[in-house]
What we know:
Acyltransferase_3; Acyltransferase; elongated; two-stranded antiparallel ribbon; six-stranded mixed beta sheet; Rossmann fold; 27 helices; 2 domains; mainly alpha; disordered N terminus; acyltransferase activity, transferring groups other than amino-acyl groups; acyltransferase
Amino acid sequence: MKIDKNIPALAIKAAAGDVDLSTHPKYRSDIDGLRAIAVLAVVLFHAFPSLLPGGFTGVDVFFVISGFLISTILVKEHARGSFTFGSFYARRIRRIFPSLLLVMACCFAFGWFALFPDELKQLGLHLLGGAGFVSNAVLWNEVGYFDRAADTKPLLHLWSLAIEEQFYIFWPVLLLVAAKRRFSFMALAAGLALLSFAINVGFIKAFPTAGFYSPASRAWELLLGAVLACAMLSPRGLPLLTNAAPAARNLRAGAGALLLALGLALITRGHAFPGWYALLPTVGTVLLISAGQSAWFNRAVLSNRVLVWFGLISYPLYLWHWPLLSFAHIVESGTPSAPLRAGAVALAVVLAWLTWRFVERPMRFGASRYTVAILAAAMTLLAAIGGMAWFNNGVPERAAILDNARHQKSLVMVEDRDNAAACKQRYGFDSMYEYCLMAQPAREPTVAMVGDSHAYHVSAGLLKYYSSIGENLVYFGTRHPYWNLPAEGDPYQEATQQMLELALSTPTIKTVVISAHVRMDAVSPYGKRLADAARDTLRRFTAAGKHVIFMDDVPILPFDPRACIKRAGVASSATRIPCAMPRAEAEAQTPEHFAVVDALMKEFPMVERFRPTPYLCDAKLCWVMKDGELLFRDKDHLSYEGDLFIGKKFAEEQALKAARRAGKTLQ
Length: 667
């Protein structure tokens, strides 16, 4: 095999799957210390984010370390002419699969007994994504308005593992091609790193989610490690990174430690990340690794026994800590208490050591030739189990959860996709940004409901009411249902503006119901803009002779409705008794908004107003569960039962007003 001339044939035994790196002559304890800093930063950030705002950059440190170590092995094997794809991927399976299989299996086992169907459905998809090393793509695809909070995704952290393994699908192939064409490995790594970094910087503003999850915008971090590996194995090297003078080593270590510390302390979730900010932890890591074990900081700090111990268990600790914190969040229906989070971290450390000692090491360094096949088969089985849970909607018939099946259904958004498709076809809507529902798509509409998801969550009740009196309701919209709101590149708002025009211009539509989750006021620039837009909207509809009904929003809950439901086998769940919030707290949420609405109602006396709050609340409490029915599916959206309940009250109010009008007519 032809190899890169810049890389000498090395007589050093490569770190293959049957070699324990911790006893290898070339083992570097300082790199394990660096791993420890990375994993402890991530764990601390996830458990107590305010203590270390940039702790999440520990993942970027892992990327550089991984790129350095794996590329070192690959370059050495190419230099000896001993590289094979089979041996490389067998080592990856032995290294990655054992701990990962154990953690994912335990997560699913707990989820089977404790999670509600929608939660287990999502866990099943994430299990499938984790087993296939495409978690980053799954999470990328989930981002959206109704996406569940990150804290409720126990396998969220597997996105970084997916990035690594996707990189290692292509990197060995590219190195093999470069070796056969006698192309410099270092030049290849540096060129690809620059390209990937450019993609990262280009994506971070326009496509932040893609910039975070895409392997194309993350590969440069692993490639920095690869460049360093090539430099340290090349006779010529890179003087800036390979100068062996003690002063130069100490300077690199000090600069690297400073950059790493700045990243951990200064970068926050509010920054556009990775972008340029990711250079702090990644370049810092490169400098620390290049300094070598003899540099004072690496020798005295990174090679400390405690740090090295945490470094050895860093992989299973990374795998265990997040599911424990996430499940605690799910069970508590909110952020767990500080003692509970601390306990979860302590348990993660214990489980990580047990996993490293009794699972990872025996499987990684065992002599059985069937290990790889068994691990691959187990991962395939786990993927199939995850797929089963996903395709079966979280297996709602599980015996463990049947007692609360009725309440669990209330947590899921009910969607009539066939009706939506028929409505979109009728109006020629051909994009995902346009949405509508219609009681009878074959008939002309007589009532239009316009708004965002806070109109949608009362649409079923209103569809039922208006159908009962012979009217045909159509629901339009996805964003704020007001004219003259700048879309500013938001295609949903642009589509909503077009649908407002449709409601205005359709002659058969006599009644328009407006409902939205907006917060108007008379002070802030955006609040005033919303108020002006609402005023213009009411003016246009009333001027066109439409009967307008303005629906107030529902209260925003200070807790997740899931807190009202008992989870099987989890003693601390269903702690929200009574399942309600103080009415005074609900009424104090948006006084400025309701002051604007009151003024608009005086300005447009012909506009009818409907208030859901009096029907959800009594004198003291606003009820989330009423007469055994869960009325909310999340903190600010009604459940299907809540939708029908408000629809019923709307119908009663309309009937009462009609009776009053009839009485006045008779008089």
